[in-house]
User: Fold these one by one.
Assistant:
Number 1:
Amino acid sequence: MDDQFSQKIKALSELDFPPGLHGKIMRKLAFLQFRTPFLVVVSLLLLNLIFSGWQIWYRLSESDAFNTFRILLEGAEWNWRTLGDLFEIAQNLFPLGLIFTFTINILLIAYILFVLKTYKTLLLKQKQ
Amino acid sequence: MTDVDKTTILQAKNGNLAAFENIVYRFEKPLYSYLYRLCGHGQTAEDLTQETFLKIYKNLKKIDPDGNFSSYIFTIATHVAYDFFRKKKHVQELFILDDPESDIETITEEHAYTIVEKIENSEFIEKALSQLKTEYKTVLLLFYKEDFSYETIAKTLHIPLNTVKTYLHRAKRALKEVLSKPAE
């Protein structure tokens, strides 16, 4: 009887493989592959965000840019030439490059979080 | 049991996802069947299958391409399943007699006939297997279905060699016991 047991257990057929499971496995593996570079990129972006934010704050408080600009605005006559002059002064007063970097950083992080949330939602839907 | 060729393993080790997908293709069905038979639940078996492949992928660097890849994969799967059972305290103590003194030979002739009849039907075997203790199911499936040696099972389950033999003996006895019960 033991032989019969062993033969029967050996002959047990494989069960039906759930449709979609292979795809789920491969998607998780693909995600795993770019997880490290993804974490590095997010860390760099966060570091850059903190650094540029701190730099903007430091430069603005150092140059008292908002007060100076407010004074300029109060006495200004509104025409195209004044606008051009104000823009030039603003370029000198405000660290526009840093502000641009800061904004791009925020947008990139928001986009990454959005992609991550969408991906997780997709994975959860597949699980249900 | 066909194993995966060395080149595929080496390619997968070098980060080739397509090569690893071949490994997934080769093992997904037997692995899912094994895990389903261990846990008896489709969704859990799916989750455990996914977890097993993720674990294998993460540990690819440690794999010896000259070793027995099949036994490595089933060892990981067993560990994943046992971790799950431990976490969920899922190890079911069913009605199987675990008393080494109890004697299966006292089965009546009528029961013996029922057993032989039921063995012929793989559905009965599946049902009977599902009612065994997890350790018994594991040794039976690894030994008979996956062709593991006593030594490999002992290593996989971290138990002494003699315990494997005892488990196997008791598992077969328990299976006979379940099969000898009249059908519901």
Number 2:
Amino acid sequence: MRLHPVARIALGLPALAALAVLFVAPMVNILLQSLHVNTIAGTSSAWTVHNYSEGISGFYRSSMLRSIWISLVVTLIAILIGFPFAHTYAKAKGPGRFVLTLILFLPLLTTSIVTSYGWLIVLGRSGMVNTALQHIGIISKPINFLYSPLGDIIALEEWILPFAILPITGSLAGISPDIYKAAHSLGSGSIRTFLSMTVPLSRAGIIGGAVAAYALSMSSYTTPRLVSGGAVQVLPIAIYNQFVNVLNLPLGSALSILLLVVVLVPVALLGRRSMLAGRA
Amino acid sequence: MSALTTLADRMQPRRRTAKQPALLPLPRTIAKIAYMTLISAFLLAPIVVVLAASLTERAYLTFPPHGVSLKWYRDAFAQQDFVDSLKFSVWTAAVVATLAALIAYLLALALGSTSILGHRRALTRLVTWLRVGTLSARTIRLTAIMPMMLPVIVLAVALLQFFARIGIVSSPLSIIFGQLVMCLPFAVLMAEIGLGHVDPSTCLAAESLGASKLRVLRTIVVPASSSGLAVAWAFSFVVAFGDSTVALLLQGPGQITAPIDIFNVLYFNPFAPTVAAMAGLLAVITFACLTVGIAVLERGGRRA
């Protein structure tokens, strides 16, 4: 059955209207706002890229670089520890699969305020990890997980990991088992099969997972805010402060656009095919 | 011939090494189970800790908890601010989920109708126009899924600015609209999975037997894809319910969601067991919605 074109348009219209008003218009709005500067009399009407030159220098550049390295570390760890998990998850069946799906989706969808709060309890100076390590005698003084990038990385990892595992699982599940049989019958050992077959064939999932992990850790606000209490100035915290505390809206808009560019360029270059390629 | 024998000779030891792991399935399985348990423990750690800590009998957080009691949950429900925020969260998330699921389902139907519902025999006048239509379908889909990749903080500040400009910033509508954009990508993906369960040949058969398009939609497409619609609703609800960034920036008097209420309380008194009980309650609600959603999704997938 082919729907009448008018019917197709009518079906798509609510979504298009919602996206135009609630997504495109606000984004254009902050793009325009970022091209003005704040003066004592209010926002000037002259066009300028001043906010962008401020946004890529000094304090904001270091926030940006800190966001990038934290996100890259989170992404790398997510791929490395996520791959073996995805490998087993892709083959799981029945109740085992159901339980693993639940375990993957629960941290992904539970509000980051609850999970960050959990990490505060686990990683605090007198939290579980420090108490346990001191008890065993591995450390004499508690480790400062919180208010440091280390805590951010651990807490982000827990939330991000499922986003890396799911695309990898998707591409691993798509590999025909015959390929492994063929490799085995031709005498290829399991390590060699893994490196020369499994990894290249699941490349799309690995790239998709990495892109999602990077994009989400770059843009996370509440997790770093709660876990490092603002002591680790990442770009989303700088943006929030411009809009809520400093009220330099044009600069905040410029920083938002910069974050958008730094997130979306790798997404566009690497992830478009693997993440957004649809079935429709 | 000699080449073949050397090849066979060379294959011999290799084949043995390749077979060897089959003799040791047990250590491998144990290592696999241990690894999966370790990662699962890491993924669940903060949620389990919050739940466990909220059950303590003491007036401060302890882990492992001392005794088991639900008194901090009773205390959480005695906090009027929290109860109000929870009610606000539930009704706004339900509205968001309903809007997102419907809009996304209709969009998925529009985008997928050619591929799901098969062949095209367009009027010649409309052919060129239709081709433009199919080309832009990909763009439309990309735009609908874009907000998922977009930094949420950027979306939130952009919405804050925009809603302030059009004057709805101090209304629940701002949070509903904001979370709607966040949920749409998930809803579209889930609706597409649901529509993937529709069998095109059944539609074709019905049509060739003279069923009208509306009837095909009503009796075949919608029933076969209804699990996708339900899952789109459940996921949108959970995403909206769990959102913290949009709700944080668009909060206002009388429009504070439960996560933001916890966020605000955390600021002053992070280690009160009542806070753990509030957080634990949110985790339980998320868990319940998720279990139902995944069960429906798996069952829908099996039936198809």
